[in-house]
Amino acid sequence: MGVEAEWLNLTAFPPMVTGITTVINSAPVTDVSGCVNPQSVWSCDSPPPGYQVNFRFEIRFRNDTLPKNETQIAKRGIYSSNPATPSNNDQFFIGEYTDNVTAPYNGELTPFYISLLNASALTENSDALDKRQSAPYPYPTADDESVSLNASTTAPKTIPRPLLSEDGSPAQSILYPFAAAQPLRLYNRGQSDEHYGFYTYFDRTIYTSSFYPNSSGALELENEARSNEVLANATAVCTWSQTRLHVQIWTRKTNVATLSDRMPLDSLRAINSTANDMLAPGSFPMPVTISLDRHGGKANQKGVYCYGLNSEHKVLYDTKSWIHENRAFGGVLVNPASVPTSDGTTFSRRHNIMQIYGGVDGGTGGCLCQWRNWI
Description:
Elements (H helix, E strand, L loop, with lengths): L5 E5 L2 E11 L3 E6 L22 E7 L6 H8 L12 H10 L10 E10 L64 E6 L7 E19 L5 E9 L8 E15 L37 E6 L9 E7 L5 E8 L10 E2 L4 E2 L5 E2 L14 E2 L4 E5 L3
Antiparallel strand pairs: 1-2, 2-4, 3-17, 4-5, 5-6, 6-7, 7-8, 7-9, 9-10, 9-11, 10-17, 11-12, 13-16, 14-15
């Protein structure tokens, strides 16, 4: 597949752009951090602080009959999702109670797959297009849906070990995961808010500063704590496990950019293509909304926890704490999961124990980041 983007028109689906494109300096439209205290533990800034929030998309069309020269590539997994897609139960639940889409709540299958690539500018010797995230996050696996249709709301009991890089330092602080080969589904067909979309879960790591151990050795963050620090200035590392990344590509809004007719597409170098358009709003022509929120996920893997760092920025394994999270902040949850807290107890607001739900923490509220490339 060439890297230069082009429109693909199919009779059964709205037009879609395939190839590699950029979304540059996307506008922040929502920043909600009141779900946690101190609020600075949540951040919508791109690490390191002050950098633009950029994205690079690779969208592929998967035909039922692949060209001969792509058959072997497909067998090697270009359409194998990493992380695995959320369970059908989770998708039905989130679609109905959080994303407010119409039936079918899990959307319609389409032949399009999207990957999020390294968004750094390409150079003559750049290999950024080949880089997928080397799994610093423990991606969730698919649920065994044969066990139960009712999602567990039980919180984890012990603080997980921190995620580490190969040199033993905390896992890199990044804003979103480089998810690969995620199936794009079509939602709200024929309506004004018709869109392609997908979501996935990941464990988000954030560096923060200003903390102190309390009398029991647990980590406490001061009210003036600063998050999204560079590692050299960080005194603690916090993890938001089971954070949701949600991408919506709108099909009935005005396009934000145009694609030029560059020929031949297959031989165009990446550095000169739509893959390397680094001027706002980027080369992706369709309106897109990208969100981070705390809805859904697996309750027994979900929480906010922090570890202290020493002067060499290594993890202090005995200095750790859960950070209480109000996932209903500013809204109302559907089937809320229990929340792990620093004193070892959990907190749950589940009201209707007779209702069967396929997921947890639906509804509205909680910490949220949202960006888009359109006004």
